[in-house]
Every structure is written in C-alpha cells, then in structure tokens.
Amino acid sequence: MDIEARLADIKERIATTAEKAGRKAADVTLVAVSKTFDGDAIQPVIDCGQRVFGENRVQEAQGKWPALKGKTPDIELHLIGPLQSNKAADAVALFDVIESVDREKIARVLADECGKQGKALRFYVQVNTGLEPQKAGLDPRETAAFVKLCRDELKLTVEGLMCIPPADENPGPHFALLAKLARECDVEKLSMGMSGDFETAIEFGATSVRVGSALFGTR
Ligand SMILES: *Cc1c(COP(=O)(O)O)cnc(C)c1O
C-alpha cells in the first residue's frame, strides 16, 4: 500500500469503528504522527487532504513544520511529547495544540508565553493512567485539581485529556479511566489510541487518535 492507500484505510477504520459505537466518523479526528519523518514524507499526506499532525519533539518539529505550514496555512500541529520550560516559547510559537501539559511549572510558563506572544493555544492535560514511574503525565487522582488550576487561575483553554497506556497491558481499562476523569473534570475531548489500539480507543470514546507507524511506516 502506498501512503495514500494507508491514509484512506485508517480513515475507513476510524469511520467504521465510530459508527459501530454509535458515534459519527466526523467526531473522531485523526492526528497523523509524523515524528522522525521529513518534509518529503509528510507532504504527500498533506496533499491527500490531511490537516492535523502530531510531533513529539519541539526542535525536530521546528526543522520541518515552518516550511510545510507556510505552504498549507490551515494545518493544525499538535505537540504530543514531553515539554521542557526552556522550549516553551518555541512550542507556543509553532504549535496550535499542546497535549502534554502535566505539571504546574510548565502550565505557568505556557500561560506566560501565550500572553507574551498573544497566542491562544488549546491544551490537553496528560494523565499517567498506569502510574508508570518513567512516563510523563499526572497521577489520575490529581487530575481534577490540576485542570481546575489551569483553567481558573492560569486561564488556559484545557479542552481535553491525553494518555499513553502501558505498552504491555490491555489498553481498555486505561481508556475507560481517562474517559471517566474527563467527565469528572468537565473536559470534552479525549486524545487516546495509537496505531495498535486506536479502534479500541474509539470504542471507549476517543475524540482523537494519534496514529504514526500505521500511516508513515515503521520508524
Ligand atoms: C509516537 C507516538 C504516537 C504514535 O505511535 P504509533 O504507534 O506509531 O502510532 C502516539 N502518541 C504519542 C505520544 C507518540 O509519541
């Protein structure tokens, strides 16, 4: 399959799964995760009409996205990887959505930068549903208070929650937990599901799925 066929196949699987779950295909956004792939690999996917992309490193994204966005201004770029404070200004300048907000310090720096740059980004709070010590994300029990702080005090637009379940576990319970937390925190969107489990994530209510290798190939 070429990349056009792979994109069509993934979109078809998203639509079929959404409809089986009693949801609309249009209610699930495909975030095409283009990390490690260069502009020449990404451009054909843009040419097929894909507009939402995810990257996990600020510096890598800076090397390719200004040119790609220059040609196609309606692209929406999501940061899905860990963010350090010293990269926050660059991240606010380049990205439209940051999905990896997981601690007060970075939330404060992002709020400052949005003010300085006059930009209104959208944010997701990342939750470490498996409480894995090596993984980014908030303790599920701290999520509601953190969302409240981001919204009420820092005036960040928190529109959703994001998680990456433990690689060696059935992801279903993690997706269910994220959906429950979203209801408790009154956030609308759920970013969950990757190449291997995006259909399961849609069954549990994902509003966006982050698909990399199934679309671009193995990294
Ligand atoms: C790389 C990555 C993905 C995509 O993973 P695939 O298994 O290649 O689809 C999704 N989410 C995050 C946070 C990632 O870093």
Automatic annotation (TrEMBL):
Q: Which UniProt keywords apply?
A: Pyridoxal phosphate
Positions of modified residues (N6-(pyridoxal phosphate)lysine): K35
Domain of life, source organism: Bacteria
Q: Which SUPFAM superfamilies match?
A: PLP-binding barrel
Record domain Alanine racemase N-terminal: where: 8-218
Report the Pfam families cross-referenced here.
Ala_racemase_N
| Record-linked NCBIfam families | YggS family pyridoxal phosphate-dependent enzyme (TIGR00044)
Give the family this protein belongs to, as stated in its UniProt record. Answer: Belongs to the pyridoxal phosphate-binding protein YggS/PROSC family.
Q: What does this protein do?
A: Pyridoxal 5'-phosphate (PLP)-binding protein, which is involved in PLP homeostasis.
Name of the protein in its database record: Pyridoxal phosphate homeostasis protein
**What is the species of this protein?**
Agrobacterium cavarae
